[in-house]
Specification:
The protein is an alpha/beta fold. It has 2 domains: 2-175, Aspartate Aminotransferase, domain 2 (3-Layer(aba) Sandwich), CATH 3.40.640; 179-254, Ribosomal Protein S8, Chain: A, domain 1. The protein has 7 helices and 15 strands. Helix 1 (2-17) runs parallel beside helix 5 (167-175). The longest helix has 18 residues, at 177-194.
Length: 255
């Protein structure tokens, strides 16, 4: 029964991300460790902003410039020859990366692309890249609160350590993906509309969370009051943005 459920889950994931081989892991961090071990003789490239701490598990890595986490294609072009780029597909949940352009650029530079789809799982862009990573954290698209996966179109030497006692719950989360995604994107659109008078970072990019700049104390108070009224989690000056400017991150992914 467990084997049957595991196969059903992997088949669902295969269809969503268009990869042949799925390896379930105890966490997204473990999936990254597996990948780093498999490719340990390569240098990784990571985002200079919005890179998850786990991306630094690789022995050797350099940073690529970004515009509030969105990859700078010119800087990438100058650095990616014979490297491995690991990117957050839905950039800290507030803006989708130009994955197609990134993949096309990297192909010409012999650079593998590792697409972390923890936020973009279910979007067409999650199908792109040489390797796929995903975390099932409590704030992620598949909000199981446990586990993740590594995927590839080539067979990998990876020992799976996912707790099979959680397969039924994972299956339920996967079958509810469409409803949860629609709900989160609906809230995102509403928040952007309601707070349209403020400076929203990457406003026209698809996202779940909303990142807003403010320039005065009264602006900050208005944003925070809105979040409190609408029961939305908010973070002041999130650490993943290296900026001197004042910002509020509205964390819709926590709904």
């Amino acid at each position: 029964m467990l084997k049957c459920m595991e196969e059903k889950i992997k088949n669902i994931i295969k269809k969503i991300i268009d990869k042949k081989y799925i390896y379930l892991a105890s966490s997204g961090s473990e999936a990254i460790k597996h990948l780093a071990n498999l490719l340990k003789y390569k240098t990784f490239l990571i985002q200079d902003q919005c890179a998850l701490p786990e991306y630094r598990n690789a022995d050797s890595y350099n940073e690529v410039k970004t515009n509030y986490g969105i990859i700078d294609l010119k800087d990438l072009n100058s650095k990616c020859q014979n490297k491995i780029l690991i990117i957050n597909g839905l950039n800290h949940y507030f803006a989708e990366q130009p994955i197609s352009e990134i993949v096309d650029l990297c192909k010409g530079k012999n650079c593998f692309v590792v697409n972390d789809v923890s936020g973009s799982f279910g979007l067409n862009s999650a199908r792109l890249g040489d390797y796929t990573l995903c975390n099932f954290g409590s704030d992620d698209t598949i909000n199981l609160g446990y586990g993740g996966f590594l995927a590839s179109n080539t067979e990998l030497n990876v020992a799976e350590d996912f707790d099979k006692g959680k397969l039924d719950e994972l299956y339920e989360k996967l079958t509810n993906l469409d409803a949860r995604s629609k709900y989160l994107y609906w809230i995102n659109e509403k928040v952007k509309k309601d707070l349209n008078s403020f400076e929203i970072i990457h406003k026209d990019k698809r996202g779940v969370n909303v990142l807003i700049k403010f320039y005065a104390e009264n602006e900050k108070k208005k944003i925070m009051k809105y979040c409190e009224k609408n029961q939305l989690d908010a973070t002041l000056n999130p650490k993943y943005i290296k900026s001197t400017g004042n910002m509020v991150a509205i964390n819709i992914n926590k709904k």
